[in-house]
Fold this sequence. Notes:
Layout: E1 4-8, E2 17-21, E3 25-28, H1 41-44, H2 46-49, E4 60-61, E5 64-65, H3 68-86, E6 91-95, H4 101-115, E7 120-122, H5 129-139, H6 148-153, E8 156-160, H7 164-167, H8 169-181, E9 186-190, H9 196-199, E10 203-205, H10 212-225, H11 231-237, E11 238-239, H12 241-248, H13 255-262, H14 266-278, E12 282-286, H15 288-291, H16 296-309, E13 319-322, H17 329-335, H18 350-360, H19 373-381, E14 387-391, H20 395-398, H21 402-411, E15 414-419, E16 432-435, E17 444-447, E18 452-456, H22 469-479, H23 491-503, H24 522-526, E19 531-532, E20 559-560, E21 577-582, H25 598-601, E22 608-611, H26 613-619, E23 626-631, E24 634-642, E25 650-654, E26 687-693, E27 698-704, E28 716-722, E29 725-732, H27 737-747, E30 750-754, E31 760-766, E32 769-777, H28 785-789, H29 798-810, E33 815-817, E34 822-823, H30 824-833, H31 839-846, H32 856-871
Parallel strand pairs: 6-7, 6-14, 8-9, 8-12, 9-10, 11-20, 12-13, 14-15, 15-16, 21-25, 22-24
Antiparallel strand pairs: 1-2, 2-3, 4-5, 4-16, 17-18, 18-19, 21-26, 23-24, 23-26, 27-29, 27-32, 28-29, 30-31, 31-32, 33-34
Helix pairs in contact: 3-22, 4-17, 4-22, 4-23, 5-16, 10-13, 10-16, 19-21, 30-32
This protein binds ligand MGD (2 copies), iron/sulfur cluster and molybdenum atom.
Residues 9, 11-12, 14-16, 35, 39-40, 42-43, 168-170 line the site of iron/sulfur cluster (SF4).
Amino acid sequence: xxxxxxxxxxxxxxxxxxxxxxxxxxxxxxxxxxxxxxxxxxxxxxxxxxxxxxxxxxxxxxxxxxxxxxxxxxxxxxxxxxxxxxxxxxxxxxxxxxxxxxxxxxxxxxxxxxxxxxxxxxxxxxxxxxxxxxxxxxxxxxxxxxxxxxxxxxxxxxxxxxxxxxxxxxxxxxxxxxxxxxxxxxxxxxxxxxxxxxxxxxxxxxxxxxxxxxxxxxxxxxxxxxxxxxxxxxxxxxxxxxxxxxxxxxxxxxxxxxxxxxxxxxxxxxxxxxxxxxxxxxxxxxxxxxxxxxxxxxxxxxxxxxxxxxxxxxxxxxxxxxxxxxxxxxxxxxxxxxxxxxxxxxxxxxxxxxxxxxxxxxxxxxxxxxxxxxxxxxxxxxxxxxxxxxxxxxxxxxxxxxxxxxxxxxxxxxxxxxxxxxxxxxxxxxxxxxxxxxxxxxxxxxxxxxxxxxxxxxxxxxxxxxxxxxxxxxxxxxxxxxxxxxxxxxxxxxxxxxxxxxxxxxxxxxxxxxxxxxxxxxxxxxxxxxxxxxxxxxxxxxxxxxxxxxxxxxxxxxxxxxxxxxxxxxxxxxxxxxxxxxxxxxxxxxxxxxxxxxxxxxxxxxxxxxxxxxxxxxxxxxxxxxxxxxxxxxxxxxxxxxxxxxxxxxxxxxxxxxxxxxxxxxxxxxxxxxxxxxxxxxxxxxxxxxxxxxxxxxxxxxxxxxxxxxxxxxxxxxxxxxxxxxxxxxxxxxxxxxxxxxxxxxxxxxxxxxxxxxxxxxxxxxxxxxxxxxxxxxxxxxxxxxxxxxxxxxxxxxxxxxxxxxxxxxxxxxxxxxxxxxxxxxxxxxxxxxxxxxxxxxxxxxxxxxxxxxxxxxxxxxxxxxxxxxxx
Length: 872
Ligand SMILES: Nc1nc2c(c(=O)[nH]1)N[C@H]1C(S)=C(S)[C@@H](COP(=O)(O)OP(=O)(O)OC[C@H]3O[C@@H](n4cnc5c(=O)[nH]c(N)nc54)[C@H](O)[C@@H]3O)O[C@H]1N2
Ligand SMILES: Nc1nc2c(c(=O)[nH]1)N[C@H]1C(S)=C(S)[C@@H](COP(=O)(O)OP(=O)(O)OC[C@H]3O[C@@H](n4cnc5c(=O)[nH]c(N)nc54)[C@H](O)[C@@H]3O)O[C@H]1N2
Ligand code: SF4
Ligand SMILES: [Mo]
């Protein structure tokens, strides 16, 4: 009998519903309110990515397999001993917005209510904490007031520091569909880069990095000047007007001054301010260009100020809207996974501490905030935190200042890492590795950006001894002596307790109230349909929007206007390019989940740092050249390439590369641990870097059924999967090509053939079959590795070999449409040779851009660039 499972995507905060048929066929769930059937490339690849190349299957202590019993007893004993010797603050948890609400709840309860300190922080500190603080300051509670429908119903949508086309593709698609239906709706993108989202906007404001507070303060002043402030609303529902107007009196916020400070032209700026003033239905969606800043919280509040002044909060088509990054970033904020919250939207005041302690029946409760992520790792480095449990995150790559983080990981007395794979940069430091059950293998709930709770459901058993994270956490709790408090038979029991806590003595002061979901039967929990919170017991209410009536979660019910004083980014050196970091369309974070799928690597197969044409010319460096990038914190190697979406003297590098995929490509080696003073969120988006050439003596490409088997590691390499094996780009500045050949020749299995032009190809033969090909030459290859991979495992034939290599060398394979594997070359040919000059034509002939639609912007760009080159 066929079996259908309804679940939720494991990736971004859109929270798309997914249907799985018989564990083997995946599709978007047309009934899910977030996506109504649509999926992006990452979501549609989920089943394939479950096949991890190196899945962690058993608990492992110092490299030895041991059963769960041994592992859990070890943790409980070490924790109890450390607490006895150094107190509860010597234990730390570092968790993740990729945990399910149930996992997160148990982790938080164990740390704050039973270990009795608050040293649990999460990668949401790197992601959402500025938005959390901005909401808390303005509304008295961390609440996103709006819903996705607002993004379709507004007349002005402003994306600030958000490349939604790539990072929340299904939402972007909904926006584009709404614009097609409602031409009066304007889209403005505020981003120093002309991203794929900006390409498709009515107006792109390419402001100078870090000047957002100026821009929004200027907007607020403009609203006063043109009489568009809703005075009645402001009087009735806000506080802080006097401080804000005093600040805005400064002529520095006049239009002309703002244009200059933000590096914008006045016409564009005025157009934006006018649109805002004239369109009551305005949504401002913001993400990491706002949050990841030395003043991320102020940036958030400056946006919220403009919405409060115009009464545009929680109304249809009118709200500030913070998009969440990870699938359960919101759920983590609900349970209280940050070191600065207690639980369920309660803080560390005496009343909340007493209430939560009573609810949990806990022996000792944390009474003050713990270390925020960056400080937590400093405390580990200094030995103040002696044991650290890292769950579902890869801080060796994702925290700023990788050298310092690695020093902490290396110094930690007892490091536990719960993971799906042992092949992460963080797992390599672990004393104890715990195998986690992952997406599709575990049960629980997630909450998306619009407060919609949906179930993730299992459709397959975890392999080996992998177990869900909540189970490991609860077992440790029991073994530490808290048997009753952690005696959960399943996630339903955890859910019910969490939901009850949100409603406990909650007489309306906290919007987060799941009382109506606290008494679900096991069947009801299993069948839970997606729904937004609050869900009050005994009452059904429209939860789509909150605060629409102007009553907020502050003691006096009024929202707070914050007088946000602009600050410049904190930079450790004056000289160099201003490096911005962020995401690529097809990769997920540190690539542990997405880097092993050839399809997802094709659009961006090696680490690149990009600058615009002018900056490239000025640098004296060559496009395509390998460069050292350096900052006072460290050094990175990447290929330098041109991208005119960037402004002069600005550079961009993705955040995804790790030591598992390339030599020194992790961009956080360069980023300083500068944090926002209110939220503690790192300033990932601005770092000054210097570029110098990497003087390669040769460049190479390896295509093989496995990793290259030679004792020699070139200084630079970058690997990616290809069908049937892997491909590596190589370069070395120490030994010569001749010396390289000598290393290979010693093994005796290699056959060397000359290549046309310069260089040679060395063929690794085993029983007469090709196991690998190494091309080495003076210049870098732009070749079609897919063709070369076709030669693997076939018997050697010199003529076929040289013909294929020639063909491969002629080809360029940058993939534009990942869904249908359509390359830039194919698209250019279709435009130039078949004379196609419209998107629809490309879609009909090549199918590109017809599935998830995320490449549509790029297709349009290619259509234009080919047209321009015709004209030339
Ligand atoms: N494909 C993909 N999608 C993802 C993820 C992924 O790894 N891959 N991760 C998910 C997660 S956890 C998150 S948090 C989200 C992040 O989603 P986004 O925030 O949309 O993504 P980023 O690329 O980090 O940064 C957004 C933009 O901020 C801009 N920016 C930099 N500095 C400034 C500035 O000073 N002002 C302004 N206004 N903009 C600036 C950058 O140029 C960049 O285009 O994506 C989620 N979705
Ligand atoms: N320079 C720079 N740095 C950044 C950012 C940036 O824009 N620029 N963005 C920041 C942001 S917003 C974020 S969210 C972080 C993300 O950074 P990380 O959280 O470090 O990145 P991930 O690769 O998602 O790590 C999650 C890990 O959890 C594992 N995993 C998956 N599912 C499970 C599970 O169910 N249980 C367990 N135990 N493990 C699991 C995966 O294998 C993976 O290794 O990076 C931050 N760092
Ligand atoms: S938009 Fe986000 S939630 Fe939806 S399929 Fe893509 S990654 Fe998954
Ligand atoms: Mo994130």
